[in-house]
Design a protein that fits this description.
Layout (H helix, E strand, L loop, with lengths): L4 H9 L22 E5 L4 H12 L3 E6 L8 E3 L3 E4 L5 H8 L4 E4 L7 H4 L3 H6 L1 H14 L3 E7 L30 H19 L3 E6 L2 E2 L12 H15 L3 E5 L5 E3 L1 E2 H12 L7 E3 L4 E3 H12 L4 E5 L14 H7 L7 H17 L8 E3 L1
Parallel strand pairs: 1-2, 1-5, 2-4, 3-15, 5-6, 6-7, 7-12, 8-11, 9-14
Antiparallel strand pairs: 10-13
Bound molecules: nicotinamide-adenine-dinucleotide.
């Protein structure tokens, strides 16, 4: 279903304009418009934040995850919370039935340490998106969002630390991250063909490393920003002033703060962008620089050791946001230092208060 003229106009008027702001403005609200929105993977990091934002905007939200609800990172009694395994087609029908919008943020995933060692598990997420697309078609969903990843980009484009930024065309000829990246690339194409052949209005964003409070910070699935925050906090609390870094620390990445991710996700979902588009920060740093920033925030300096045999991924990666700026007049702009301050503070509280197995937050 195409967006109404009114919604398009709202989108144009309320686009954030400058990089000066530290937080994105709220996406044009469709509050109280009676839409039913389903968030799949709602018990996870990004899904939990999206549910909270949608509820705050007044939407009716169905939140779905396979984890028991006591383990969801954020959970609200205002949402209809369902525990379903979305690899299963019938569960997908149950999840999607009666919905206008579906956000697919459900996947078996983690940071480099997880995806390099669990390729088969990562590929099984293809069942989730396949069955959700089939269910969306069956139930007549008007808009479908799929969370893809920068891991779809060709490895041969990411061999140096001074990566100028990956643009959308750099996904082909295909050479994605083995396992996780291939699943994302396949699912992107499935979204495209379900749109072209069956009229499922699918939108796809390629997320580049998302971080923030309520993300995974231990257990093996955590990504670099949360892992570095945790290690620095543990060093601070234990007095053992050492840190292990995976690789030589010169590999480069960009990291997107969760508020930018949620804003961009809604904007892309509500847009007419029918091709997979980058959603990431263009602020590229080395992992050594990332550690510098977290040390600054913590007010300590640690002795670094480098584990050269640990999983480290590609050599250099960042997001080229030319298309995003062209399409939305906006790009992620929350500075890494700002986002890390908030993330560090949250992880510090978690660890210092003994919630090292994560605390469940009941929103509203
Ligand atoms: P997350 O692991 O925190 O959340 C994913 C959620 O999906 C989990 O709660 C998990 O229980 C749920 N899930 C897994 N299998 C399921 C199933 N069969 N049925 C129902 N639920 C299931 O991950 P996240 O960081 O919130 O990522 C959300 C999406 O964004 C994923 O598709 C991920 O691949 C993508 N992505 C994330 C990042 C990032 O940096 N976080 C980067 C690129 C892409």
């Amino acid at each position: 279903m195409a967006l109404s003229r009114k919604k398009k106009a709202a989108l144009k008027v309320q686009r954030p304009e400058s990089k000066a702001r530290s937080m994105p403005k709220l996406f044009p609200s469709q509050a109280n418009d009676g839409q039913k929105i389903v968030v799949c993977g709602a018990g996870g990091f990004i899904g939990g934040h999206l549910v909270k934002k949608l509820l705050n905007d007044g939407h009716a939200v169905r939140a779905v995850d396979k984890k028991p609800q006591s383990l969801w990172y954020q959970r609200s009694g205002q949402a209809e919370n369902l525990t379903l395994d979305l690899e299963n087609h019938d569960h997908c029908i149950q999840a999607v039935n009666g919905a206008d919008f579906v956000y697919n943020l459900a996947a078996d995933m983690g940071g480099m340490g997880f995806i390099e060692l669990n390729k088969g598990l990562c590929m099984l997420s293809v069942l989730i998106n396949t069955h959700l697309l089939m269910a969306a078609r069956h139930c007549g969903v008007s808009r479908f969002f799929y969370a893809s990843s920068a891991c779809v980009y060709a490895g041969y484009k990411q061999k140096t630390t001074d990566n100028p930024g990956l643009c959308e065309a750099d996904a082909y000829p295909a050479d994605p991250e083995d396992g996780y990246g291939w699943e994302k690339l396949f699912s992107e194409r499935m979204c495209r063909h379900f749109r072209e052949d069956f009229g499922v209005e699918a939108r796809v964003a390629r997320y580049h490393n998302v971080y923030g409070p309520h993300g995974t910070y231990d257990g093996g699935r955590e990504k670099a920003p949360a892992a570095i925050c945790r290690k620095v906090i543990q060093a601070k609390l234990s007095g053992k002033r050492e840190i292990e870094i995976w690789g030589d620390g010169e590999q480069t990445r960009s990291f997107m703060y969760i508020d930018d991710c949620i804003f961009g996700t809604e904007a892309i979902t509500n847009s007419d962008i029918t091709y997979p588009i980058n959603l990431g920060s263009a602020e590229m740093v080395s992992i050594n620089r990332l550690v510098d920033i977290v040390e600054e925030i913590a007010g300590i300096k640690l002795k670094r050791s480098y584990n050269l045999s640990a999983p480290k991924g590609v050599r250099g990666r960042s997001s080229d946001n030319t298309q995003l700026r062209k399409e939305l007049g906006w790009e992620p702009s929350i500075r890494l230092h700002t986002g890390l301050e908030r993330t560090y503070a949250w992880i510090y509280d978690e660890i210092a208060s003994g919630h090292s197995k994560r605390s469940v937050v009941n929103v509203a």
